[in-house]
Amino acid sequence: MPIYNGMLPVINKDEVKRYAGLRHAEDFPQKFVDEACKEIQLLATPKGVYQEYDYDAETKTILSNPPFKIEGSVIEKHLEKSTKVYVLGVTVGEDVEVRSEQLFKAGNYTVGLLLDAAATTAVEQVADQVNEVINTIAKKQGYKPTWRFSPGYGNWPLEVQKDLAKIIKTEQIGLQVTDNFLLFPRKSVTAIIGLMPANEDIKTKRGCTSCSQKDCASRKLPEKASTQNTNDQVPCEKSTADASNITMKGQPTN
User: Fold this and answer.
1) Which of 23, 31, 40, 154 is the S-S candidate for 118 at Cβ 3.0 to 4.6 Å?
2) What SS3 class is residue 202?
3) What's the rounded Cα separation, in Å, for the pair 193 and 103?
4) How far apart are CA 191 and CA 155, in angstroms?
């Protein structure tokens, strides 16, 4: 399985404020956001792992060893034109969790919240980086990649996390799945990207545009047409969302 060693030279501060519920707090001191981002840059150990598999859309099966059956109408629709898939997992490590918990226990709730939001932004940026690597590989092979889709979105149950993590060996990057099907470290993401023939397309909506909760504090701002991101994910999973604007990329290693 290819291992990706990520980099976080910049953390998207607008996304940090969005995750912290501060998008409209114009008077909030920017220095606190800046400090949270700097601390996450020092604490995070961004890593990823990913693997390509053939996909049988008719039987809705990833042809891994053992085979992985896709269940859920939304994810099935999302992959209906794919002939291959990439499964990925990313994390920014446990140190960010430890520091955030320390702050909350000490009563530093504002700083703890900002640190948590910065860590969420960071892991999504690492997911974007791995997503970009996969997109580049897919396009060189003549495929069109779908946007990435994670367990817990739509009606794809979290219970698949263990089996999904198993077929890409997430333990190689220190990423585990708990008995409650949650990821540990908590600031981690697993996802799937479908590879379609270049002339195909999908109709499934993506990102916050498909959600009717217009007043959500975590809702992403509309993207400009010239900067449309192909990595957006389905809505209402406020702990994971795409955040781009990476000025530097890490390098994948085998």
Assistant:
1) 40
2) coil
3) 36
4) 14
